[in-house]
Each structure stands twice: as C-alpha cells, then as structure tokens.
Batch of 2 targets.
Target 1
Amino acid sequence: MSAGAGIAAAGPALLVFAYGLATALATGLGALPFAFVRRVSPRAVAFANAVAAGLMLGACFGLAAEGTRYGAWQTIAGANLGVVFILATQRWLGRREVTFGAAGGVEARRMMLIVVVMTVHSFAEGVAVGSAFGGGMELATAITIAIAVHNVPEGLAISAVLRPRGTSLAACAGWSVFSSLPQPLMAVPAFLFVEAFRPALPWGLGFAAGAMVFMVLVELLPEAYEDAPRPAIGLVATLTLVAMLLFQRYL
Amino acid sequence: MDLIPDDPTLTVLAYSALSAAAAALGAVLLAAFGRGGRRELPTAWSGWANALAAGMMFAAAYLLAESGLAGPPLPAALGAALGALFIFTTHAALGIARPPRARGRRADPSGGRKAVVISALHSACEGVAIGVAMAVDLRFGIFLALAIAVHNVPEATVLCGVLTGRGMRLPAATALAVAADATQVLGAVAAFALASAAPAALPWVQGFAVGALINLVLIELLPDSYREAGHTSIALVASVAMGIVVLLRGLAP
C-alpha cells in the first residue's frame, strides 16, 4: 500500500485506533478477580506468581507460533533481543533505588519489570492487530473482540504480581490498561503501512516471546518455588498454561 | 544412507532406543568432568545441566503443542490436564515429590533409588512424546527423538552424579542410567501404536505428552537448578537451549 492510499484511509484509521483503545481498556478487567481477595499470604503470592507464569508462557506459545509463521529465524533472533532487553532492564533497575507505590527494593523492581515487559509486548501485538486489520475491515469487529478478551488474562497476570504487594485495585487496573496502550498506538501506523511493517512482525513477536519467557524463568518461577510446595506450583502453572492455550485457540 | 527405515514401527523403535542410549554419553561427561574419587559434579554445573535439559524439554513441549494446532483443541487440552495431573499424582504416590540432593555426606541413602525411579518415569513420558510425534509425522518424530537424545545427555550426567556420589561405581551407574531411560522405548512404542490404531486418540495422547513434559520441567528440573546456580544464569541457559531447538526445527526439512 502506498503512502497516498494510506492517507486516504484516515477515516478507517480512526476506527482502528478506537477499536485498539477498547481492547486496551479490556486489559483492566484482569484486575477484577482481586476485588474479592482480601488478605494475601506469602503462599498466595507464590500461587499468584505461578498463575502469572502459566499465563505468560501460554501467551509465548501463541506468539512464537504466530511469529514462526512469518519467519522462523527472525522470530528466534527477536527472542534473543527480548532476553537481552530484560537483562539490560534488570541491570538498569538494579542500579537505582526504585519504589513502586508502597513497595521498595526487590519487590518494586519485580513489579516494575512485569509492567515494562507487558507494555513492550503490547507493541508487537499492536502491530499484529494493525496488520490483521489491513486484511479487510469486515473482520475488524471479530478481531477486536478476540484481542480484547485475550487481553483480560494479561491484565490478570499483571495484577497477580502487583496486587499481593500492596497495589490498590484501581492502580492494578490502571497499570493493566497502561500496559496495553501501545496496542492502539501501534495498530494505526501498522494498519496504514502494512507492507512496511510486515517484515518487522516476526522480530516483534519473537522479541515479546523471548522477553516473557525470560521474565518467567528469572523472576516469577524462582520466587514461586520459595514459598509453596513445588509439585503444587508446577501443577498450577501447567494447568494455567493449558487453559491459556485453549483460550487462545477458541478466539 | 536412508535414515528412515521402511517400517514406521521400526523407526519408532530405532530412534527411541538411540535416544535412550544417549544417556551413556552423559556418564562419559561425568567421567571427564566429575571431581574427586566419587566423581561429583560441581554444584553450579549440575544446575546448568538441569537448565539445559529443561530448556530443550520445554521446546519439545512447545513443538508438540504447535504440531497439534490443526487438531481439535478441547481433547488436546483435556489430555494436557490429564498429563499434568498424572505427573502430580504419581510423584505424590511414589513419594518422589522432592528429588534427592545430589551431594553431601548426609545425603539420604534411599536417594539413589528415588533418582532412578524419577528418571524412569520421566523418560517414559518423553517416550510418549516421541511416539505421538512419530504418529503425527515421521520426520517430526525423528527430530523430536534427536532433541530428546541430546537432552538425555546432561540429564544422565546429573543422575550418574547422584549415584556415584552415593558410592556406586561409574560403570554400574551408567548401566542404571541407560536402563532408566529405556522406558522411553516402551512409552514411544505404546504411544505410537495407540495413536496409529485409533486416530481419535491422537489429540488426547498429544495433549497428555505436552502437559506431562511441561509439568516435569516445572517440578523436577527447574527448582533444583535455581538452588544450584544463579537465577540469571539458569534462565539464560534454559531460554537459549529452548531457542536453539525451536530454531533447528524451523530450519529442518
């Protein structure tokens, strides 16, 4: 698609943005289950970490499968960049005093990291949504609903890390929505310039998958193993992963 | 030389046996790098070996799940839940929920037997993965068998280290490690026969293998390795191993 045709599509572009924004708001719904949870023990935090790990690993399976369809080595190269990105972010956060709401130290670093990871992965998803819209506007509603519903467990993963560490429910929902804001922002240019963006797609999807796998391996799982019996952690994470895969298949 | 025998069952047998035999290489590594009279593996190395095995196994689960994308999702998901529950309950029933520590003078004496039982169960599940992959597509099955073969090497190194650390001689430990991995052949042939005879069972068995493999990684391989080496190095080794397997699959014919 040429730039001229892209400008002609400014009307639909606004629609893409509005749809993208709706999917971002849906992410906030992920905080909802935590309205019903009051006291949070270290054991509960461990299980929340296991749930977040399962959701993120399940999401990675989807991202990797999607990415390798566009290009296998680009996806893997992107995944390596994602791992390096998390390592660099960890170092950077480690060198300064971070606070996140009432939390500080290691806790705050972990909270910051999951928000950063989920936000960065939304960039890739935004590009995926925008490119998909390019396939025909009649599919737009179906895709939007699919992405919106798919965002809810992502909000759940974020809230599962933030809420047990003292973040308020509203702030959990707020950060969840924030993490999805790159979706409408990236969907519009990706929709307007599909041809230019498509080669970047496997890189972006791989980047997101690598960053998420690494985040799970380096932060969520080791912490989960410390405060709960590991067969139970393994079972919860595996079943969550399977549920996430099933969920993605039906949408 | 043709690497695929005419008879598919023979292919399953040959490649799952090859994969089990790879355990012997793990003993060679232990002989080369183990320290002291008891051939003990340095703690961090044991962690990295486990992380390497975990990453490859996780990649195998991913590839298996991806190969089932065309199939019906619900039976596969139910199969996966069954696989995870199977590992959970057998571990609890056999009293092997907590794998024995690799070293220490006060290591519990039944630890060696425990480690062999764990390894046999673990390998049987990997065999199911190989067998069902062969039923999906022979070439994919061969790729998966070779990946599991490589994965068996560091795993056998750790197992032999547990056994020699308790006073067993290396040749005996090697024989036990290979024997424990031989359950892979049984699992592979059984899964292949079932999935070929009853195509309706294929997504169930496929899901079962995925759920079992992921749960094994999360219960057996990762927790110990975090204790033996730093979080960052473990995560790096596991994710790079995962990436290499997925990449090789993408490049394979």
Target 2
Amino acid sequence: MQRGELPTWVDVGLIPLINLTIAFVVAGLVVLIIGENPFQAIWILLSTPLSSLSGWFNIIYYATNFIFTGLCVAVAFHAGLFNIGGEGQAYIGGLGAATPGLLIGGALAAVLPVWVSTPITLLICLVASFAVGALWGWFPGYLQAKRGSHIVITTIMLNYITSSVMVYMINMVFRPVGKMAVESRAIDDAYIMNARELGRLVGMKLPASPLNPGLFVALAAAWGVWYLLWRTKLGYEIRAVGANMDASIYAGINPARIIMITMAISGGLAGLMAFHEVLGAQHRLVLEYVQGAGFVGIAVALMGRSHPVGIVLAALLFGLLYQGGTELSFANQNINRDMVVVIQGLVILFMGALEQTFRPYLGAIFAKVE
Amino acid sequence: MTTPAIELIGIDKRFGAVHANIDVNLTIAQGSIHGIIGENGAGKSTLMSILFGFYHADKGEIKVRGQPVKIRSSTDAISHGIGMVHQHFMLVEPFTVLENVILGVEGGRLIGPALAKARASLKHLAEEYELDVDPDAIIGDLPVGLQQRVEILKALYKGAEVLILDEPTGVLTPAEADHLFRILKTLRDEGKTVILITHKLREIMAVTDQVSVMRRGEVVANFATKDTSVEQLAEAMVGRRVLLNVNKTPATPGDVLLDVRNVTWRDKTKVARVDNVSFTVRKGEIVGIAGVSGNGQSELLDVITGITKAASGEVFFKGEDVAAIDDAGELRRRGMAHVPEDRHHRGLITSFSAAESAILGYQYAPDLGKGFRLNRDAVINRTRKEMEEFDVRPPDPFLKSAKFSGGNQQKIILAREIGSNPDLLVIGQPTRGVDIGAIEFIHRRIIALRDAGKAILLVSVELDEIRSLSDRILVMFAGRVMGERGPDATEGDLGLLMAGVSKEAA
Amino acid sequence: MDFSILPEILSSTIRMSVPLILACLAGLWSERSGVVDIGLEGKMLAGAFVAASAAATFHSPWIGLLLAIAVSIGFSLIHGYASINQRGNQVVSGVAINMLAAGLAVVIGHSWFKQGGRTPQLDDASRFLAIDFPGREALFAMPGIAPFAKIFLDHSVLTYAALALVPISAWTLAKTRFGLRLRAVGENPQAVDTAGISVAKLRYQALIIAGVLCGIAGAYLSTALQTSFVRDMSGGRGFLALTALIFANWRAWPALWACLLFGFLQAVANFMQGVHFFGVEIPVQVFNSLPYVMTIVLLAGFIGKSTPPKADGVPYTKDR
C-alpha cells in the first residue's frame, strides 16, 4: 500500500513550511509560559537581524557553518546513513585546519611573498581539514560496513572521544608554553580576512562580523555535493545504496565500499566547517568552537530535504534564528538565546520524527482537489 | 453429516489495488486434513490470516462449528479454538521453548506457575502426538524442524481444535517434512482439524483428505484427494491461459556458452537450496527452467548472475569459471545480462526516475559519461531510445519508476538488459504481473534475441510460458534438476516432474 | 599514586554511578521493548531542572522528585507518539528531545530565576541528604573504619533506591508476565501481536518506566549530588548510560557493573588530574574517553560480542 503521492512543491515547500509554523507556534507557547508576548518575541527574532547590515553579515556567517554540517548529514542520508557525528568530525577537523598554518605557514611565508604563501597555506589547510574530518567519518563507516557496528552508536561515541582528544591536543600540544588560555597561538600565516578587513582594502567601511570568504567554500561544497550526487557515477551508486540495497547489489555495486566512501565525504564536509570557523573566525584553535553546529546540521538537512539548494536556504534560516536569538536576548532580558535551541529541537521533531503526521491529511486534501 | 469445523462464506478482501480474496467460499470438515493449494500470490495466506484474525475481511462471514463468529483479533481466533503456524515462525529466538509456549497465556502476574503447567502439558502432548522437544532449549539453538514443532505445541497448548499451517515445509528437509506429515495425521486421528496451505503438489497428495485450489484470489476447485491427480491439480492451479501464439522456428544451437557443473548452494541453516545442479546453455537457444516456485530456481539464478557465490561446483561462462565471483557488475561486463525475478526489489529502484532505473547496473557504461561523470543527456537519450524501441508508456524518462504499470516497468528492465547486447540473457519470471499485450511483446523480444544467436536461460513458474518459448526444458524440484524434456513435452509429463516424480533416476 | 584517597574515590564512584545506573535501567526498559532511546540525556536534564526548580519553590525535594518524574514521562510520551504511533525515526526523535530539553531548561530557568539558566542554591531541607542511619555517627568517628563506612553509608535515599532498582528490574524482566511480554516485544513484535497482546501498549509502558527512571536520575543530579541545576548538568551521562547498556549487552546486572566501572573512571578523573603510573603521566582525558573506546572495540567484535534486542529501533507495522 502506498501513501498518497504529493505534488513536489508540497513535499519540498509546503510541508517544511507547515512544520516550521508549528515549531514556531509551540515556541510561542513557551514564550507565553514565561510571561512574554510571543508575537513580539517572534517579530524581534525574525526581523531585527534583517534590519542591519551587520545582522545580515552574522546570519550569513552562521549559515556558512550550517551549510557544511547540513551537507555532511545530507550526503550520509542519501546513502541511508544517519551520521550524528558531524559535531565530532567538525571538531577534529580543526587539527587539519590549524596544523599546516602553524607548522609550515611561517616557513612558506619566509621564502615566498605573502600573497603567494597565504593562499598556498590556506589550500593545504583546506585539504587537511577535509582529510582529517574524512578520516573521522570513514572510521564509523568502516565499522558499520566491515564489523557490523551501528553508525549511529559509533558516531555518538566518537563525538565524546573527540572531545577528550581535542582537550588533550589543544592543552598539551597546541598551547604555547606559559600561555594561560587553553588555545593555540594565533595562526597568522593561514589567515582568512573577514568581510570588514577585505572591505577596508578597497576602501569600503563594512560592519564588524566574522563573515569571511569561507562562505564561497561552503557554496562550492554545496555545488560539489549536488554535482556528486546527481551528475557522477559514484553519486548514483550512493543514492542507489540508500534507496534499495538489494537493487544496488544486483547492479554490481559494493555497498560496503559505498558506505565507507560516503561517510568519508560526509565527515570531510564537516571537517571543512573547521576550516571556515578556525581560520576565518577564531584565527586560532580553541576549545569547543563547533558549539552544536553539528547538530544544527541535522535540522538543516531535514529542513532542506537533503538537497544542497534546500540546505543553503535552511542554513540561512537557522543563521537568522541564531542571530535573531542573540538580538532577542538583548532586546528582552527575560528571554534567553537558547530559545533558538528549542526551535531547533522542534524543527527536528516535526521534520524528522513526525514528518509523516501531516502527510495523510495533505494527501487527502490533494486527492480531493485533483 | 457432521457440522463442519470451519465455514468461510463470501470472504472478500482488497489491499489497495490488489484484490487478494474474491468471494471465497470454503468448507472444512471436522477431523480432516484439508489442503489449500495455489501459486504464490493466489490469496491463500491472506485467507488464512483473515480466519486467524490478523486481517479483517471487507465482506463475508465465518462460522466455527456451525456458529457464526466475529474474529477481530488473533485472541478471538484462539478463543474459538483456531491455532496457526505461520510461514515465518512467530517465535522469540532468545526465549526457551516453555517461555514461547506460555507467551500470551501466562495466567497470572508471575510466570512461574504457567511455566510449571506448560512443562507438564508439553510432556503430555509429546506423548500423545510425537511432538518431542526439550522444554528448556533456547529456540534460536533449535533446528527449524523443531522450531516448527514448538509452533504446533503453542497452538495445541492454547487449546487449538483447528490448526492452520502456512507453507510448513518450505523450510524443512524432506525427512523433517515426512515427520511433520506423520504428526499431522496423528492430530487428525485424535480428532483435530488441520488446514494445510501449500504450493507443493506432493504434500497435498501425501497427507490431505480434501483439497481446495486457489488461483488469483478465488477458490477454483474442490476435490477429495483420493479422486484427483497431480496433473489435475497442477492444471487447476496454473489455469488454462489463452494459449499464446509464439511464432518460432526451431533452434539452431551453436557453441556452449554457459556450462553449470554440480552447483550447490546452501542457505544460512546449511540446507542445500540448489543441490548438485548441472546443465548447459548454447548460443542461439532458449533453455527454460520449469518448476513450482521455491524449488531452488531463484537461488540458482543468484549464483549464476554473481549475486551470491556457489558453495561448490563450477559455472563456466564463455569458458571461464565464474562460480566464485559475487560481483554482479563483473559478470555484466563479461556479457551476461540479468532480468531479475523480483522487479520491485531488484530490477529497478522505485524512487528513482525511469531514466535512472534504466541504467541500473550499467552506470559505468562508457557511452554514459567519461571518467567519474555521469552524462545526464546521454542517460536521458538512451532511455528515450529504449522507451521508443520497447514501446514503454508513458515514454517519459523523468517519471518516477514506481508510477509505471508492471508491464511497462518490465519493458524498461528488458530494454536495459537486451540493449546492453549481452551474450547470455538470464531472465526470471519475464511476465509475472504483466498484462497480456505486454506478454506477447516480451516473448517476441526474447525469441528475437535467440534468433540473433544469443543464449537465453529462462526461469518461469508459468508452464505455458516455458513450453512456448523454450527449446529445451529442465524441471527443478527441491533444488535438483529432475529431468530434461524437449519443447513438445506434455503438460502432464512436466507436471509429474514438477511434483518430484521422476521416471529416470535424476 | 596515593592509596589513602581510595575510600574517597570509591564513595565518589557510587555517587557518580547512581545517575548512570538509573538512566541505564531506563534505556534497558525502553530498548528491551524495542524502542531506541537516545533521549535519555534530555529526559534526565529536564528532570534535573524541574526537580531543582520545584524543590527551590516548594522547599521539598519530594515534590521536586515527583514533578521531575512527571515531566520526564511527558518527554517519554512524545518519544512514544513519534516512534510508536507515527513510526518515525527513533534516533531523530531522541535527538530532538535532547535539544528541546536542553533549550527549554535554560530558557525557562533563565526567566524564572534570573540567574542565567541556573536555579537557586538549595538549602538542606530542599535536598536529598545522606540518610542518618542509627549509629552512623559512631562509625564515622572510628578512625580505622570511618573511611570505609563512608563508602556505603554516606548516601541519600535515591542512591539506595537506584541500587535496589537493579535487582527489581532484573527480577521483573525475568519472572513476571509483564517482563516476559516486554522482552518478547523487543525481539519479535509479530509473535506478541499474534499471541493477542498489544505491541503499542507494551512499548508505551516501557517508555513510561524509562521516563520515571530518567526523572529520578535528573532529580538525583540537581537535588542530591549538587545543590542546584546548572546548564547542561547531565554532561553526557545519558549517552554514557547508553554506552554502559551496550557494554552490558542489554542486561540488568551487567548494567550495574558497567555503570560502576564507568562511575569509577569518572571518579578517578575527578580526583586525579594526571595519574602517574610508573612515572608516565596518564592524561585525565584517557579516563573520560575510556568507556567509549571500550564500547567501540566491543561493538566492533574485537573482544566479546554485544547483541541488541532484534527489533530494537524498528517500528512495528502489521503490513506484509
């Protein structure tokens, strides 16, 4: 028995919109419970960030991180895998992002002009971020494909292991002797200028924000994921394994191989988030810089229907929520910015776990219309 | 005449578009073994699931010992003295036999007393019906034959007077099956009523008193077993189809292309599902494998096409042994095309567009893109061409595969596999669930391929199809090849082989 | 290594293990019925917040406990609706519950108590204190015995309840009708259905039990172990409990040992920043990550074997 088929625009547009609306209604109830005006709160949350250029910049900065983690989750989804390890993969990716800049960036800068050495160093950092994240994604992929341990469980475990590994690495390896703060020295030789600094180069005065050209890496990654999934043989095989394991074996595809490759790509995309955050915003390796972006990626992937275009849009939406949450907590001292986490949880609940709830009703409505 | 144990009157059931049971009437006499026979999908299991309360009939009435009853759940069925042994056992594997037996009839909040009671009762039942099994054994450790015995014990413990067995011998070795039949006869002699659902003619002849034949959701015939024959049953089961006129010249076989030697394949429980099978297929001929479904044909296809490896034996394809290859892609590259028996689970990916399904298995074909690229235009163009050539309707490469009718889905697959210009085409159930018009088309294409000098291995449960297409016919039974016949073999002759009766030593 | 602190470490081991034991048993009930529960963490956190808030408001740890249980059950029911009725993805639902709980606790706490998500410090009357066993003081005064007496006698009622719940859970699962059916539904729900028992009802019952246990675990964190709720105070214990459950192969008694082991590792990590073994310093992170590393190794089948209930995480449908 098949569920009622829905027109595509309902599937990718209306259903996310309905679920988002319900998430906001429930969040509004929470606001009501703590004695505030929900309409006002939601108005501030959604409109304030959009009313200033710095607001826009911050939205896009947040969205850049979420595009990476959203793509990470989505690629795995296409192979039928649920990678909840984006958080850890993005965190460990920091090793790849920071190490080349710290180790060889200086040497390169000594022999080459800065405008040559910096891009080269950055390119190495980019590749290393991806590679380290990819390794951290491949491992649970390997465990599932070859040893039969479930990817959900191992990626959760790896998130915690990563946390310990990174505390140790940053504290014991990266922290310069005598420095109090648990962080690496500034990575001066792999420095991504932010929008304000770039503006200054061409004489424009732009607001302060961490927005930086890492955005273009995110957009390129989104395009790359789209190209991979729908324009390459590997992407075809990834989707085949995700859609129907038996048919893919019939088609001569080796599912174990595809699972490992997909998880490596997925982890690599999360690793790229470290490239953007560590080199573009923090400029040094710090503790816990991922700050839940790996989990936001789940919401983004679900909301964006695992399609890169949807993911970019959903990432912008969550960027708006994150910036709006900050603005809201400034505007109304009674509302904490974690309100955004509540909304995020609700989106995951309605888009992910309860996504079938409204389908039958919509199916019935559209059956009547047709 | 005594009151019948069960009467089903006008039972009707639909699952969406599938009409699983059409106005079924059935009377089961008390103290008899009543067989219900029919092919897969004939509606036997659905009917019995309705009797056992697992599904609800859309229309119709059920009488138990003359009394009209409403059976809304399996609890109702059990309380009316109906027990069922399902095809897939309803057993909890890490539990002991006793724990499984008392599940649902524990009596009180603690299971201790129920376990003790069941232990005593099992001992009693074991003596009465030859149903010996260690009550403390863990189900997962028991061979399937014993697991099935536990299922029977469960039903009897719950007070079953009518016992339904759904395809009980599918998982058994012949020796285990014989033991089961002895048990069933004992049960009948003790006054119980047994309903045996099967598609195996031998079983019907061996144990039943009465037999009803189902086809496409309907009961088409009722016989007393002693008054009927295997041939008569086979004919009723398959039904006389409109004889398809296939214009075919005699074959002109060339060199041997596929040489299968002593191939054996075992399932997880080490039972040989394909048992020492040998045959050859030559260029320019169609070799048909007939047999009632579930006699090892599917597994044989999987071994030959590289979906799984043979346990022993050799498969020479173009002179090279490929028995150890379990990569379907590798065999495809060597020139073996495969139309799988199960369209929906293997042949295409229902959530993919037609164009994407139309390259399944051929994603690395050189004309579909260089290197890692998959050239979308090339994929679409190829699909359009194939759709036109094979008259797929609607000819829309972007339409989701699930939205095509069965016949058109099959044409998409056939176009893909024949379009790859293979040396050998392995094809399973080419016309299952396909409308008449498409059947003729598909048959013509298969013969055209043969006339082009290609080798074809055909597996079908449709005897007519086998007879009208094949140049040589092999019959499989219980994993073995029972014999070989020419295309002019009679239906009765083949029917006997299909029932496992062999004149020559196989 | 200074062995004189061993009694203290052991006492701390028990304190650290209690929330793990409770959450692990919650996971045991839920998963033995076939529902994967990633949301242990969130339910525990919600319980901790509600318990601390209510205890601060009503000056009674018991009211705090009851409300914590109620709210935790509420989250269980959401999870049940998503995974039993809607047959949604149970992992996704659990992730959502964790986020909801973490966000709500901070948002509401921030608004109620104006301390940035923290709840007010609880006085002794609003907390679960160590039970004053008769003669306890005398034992604690004895020089040689005191440190060892403190390992076992310096705990609140919740600790003893948690320990008692292990044999109770084991017994209920093994010896009662409910336990039998529950174990069956996690292995083969169809067998349960054909035996005329409701699969959904059993799974809801299991989830409610899990809710109760997570509520107690949360109350323990904020009103027994600590003196207030602070943001993210469950600190991954829900996942650690899940890890212990896998490590214990989904069984009650082994779960106790796994939780004690993991609690011990936590206690050691807390007590000794950098333990020296034969002159080599062992970083504290080794102790923090050891449970996860051990479980990955176990799951990968390199040592032993861990087999979840067969129907764990699989929504039940009657369809063929």
